[in-house]
Amino acid sequence: MSAVEAGPSPEAAGVVRTPRSARAHQVVAAARTVLEAEGPEALTMRRLGEELGIRAPSLYKHVPDKAAVEAALIEEVLAETGAVLYQAVSRAGPPGSRPVVEALLAAYRAQAVAHPHLYRLVTTGRLPRAALPEGLEAWSGAPFDVAVGGDEDRARALWSLAHGMAILEVDGRYPEGADLDAMWRAGAAAFGP
Amino acid sequence: MSAVEAGPSPEAAGVVRTPRSARAHQVVAAARTVLEAEGPEALTMRRLGEELGIRAPSLYKHVPDKAAVEAALIEEVLAETGAVLYQAVSRAGPPGSRPVVEALLAAYRAQAVAHPHLYRLVTTGRLPRAALPEGLEAWSGAPFDVAVGGDEDRARALWSLAHGMAILEVDGRYPEGADLDAMWRAGAAAFGP
DNA sequence: GTCTATACCCGGATAGAC
DNA sequence: GTCTATCCGGGTATAGAC
Fold this sequence. Notes:
The structure is a homodimer. By secondary structure, the first copy, chain A, is mostly helical.
């Protein structure tokens, strides 16, 4: 794992984004639109072709395969999420403080709930690391290090808590009447100093 | 959500398990074997037919569809996991104590790591609640209530932390050199009194 | 009541013509 | 760069043999 520090953008941290042709970019944009609006079942190559006014096989001139489209989407979302989390953390107070933990969790939850299908795509199953820019994954998670004041193990535990609450909320796993705001507060309290 | 209390078995808590024909039971057993050994891509109706020495279409005389097979598997695993977690919690010390939290997390992690494909099946995506016995889901999670001494919000946060750490570990999401034992300890410390 | 054969639909992907 | 034709694999409905 390369040493990447939290910051406002991946590029500022020395992470090199994957270059893509204009047409490939359109494919990825279409994929994002379809996935966000209609979910993963709708994300088919035929559907992406439709969206761009061409036949599905033609897509393969611009993009290697479906997995590559998804990887590109994951790259976009990791970069955006990392930036949002960094913003939240850098405004809330000194590293390691309770307000920072609260701000980080609030921002994390908001991202997940606002884009549930994207959130699942990025966080579920194995990550296609080979297709992602070196260092991007670590950079996007760096705000958690800031929030806990540097302890790696605690940072990973806090990230795990955030992901657990986010994915279970997005997947509708909590019981009907559960007070999710109160649960997120309890989570912040457990990691607040 | 019906009021279900933690206990050694779902039946003891008044949860009624779904009845199934002997042949249907064999189908579910085969599904478990295939899924555990080879993962979700291998879990196809044709493959289950092979396993039982019949053609795939014949399976539909015993089982409504593939989703029902998965739901039956989920039911089995929820019952088993709930029992294991109850065991762990009931031996470790008084409800709400730090040793109980540690024992619960250790048992939870062990279950997930021992059966990663089953763990993903049960915890990923939406739960097919309509196909599950009333109360089973709540019963299987009740040990978390015991572990935190009754606070619902804290119990849900602890469950979320456990799931977050378990799924990220099983999915290989932590960086190469991460000390996962230390992370789980940090998680327990956050929720230990 | 149990199984088989057949067939349909869908989705990913390739080959080769224009 | 786009097309058409085509293959493959997976879920599953139907018809009918025994």
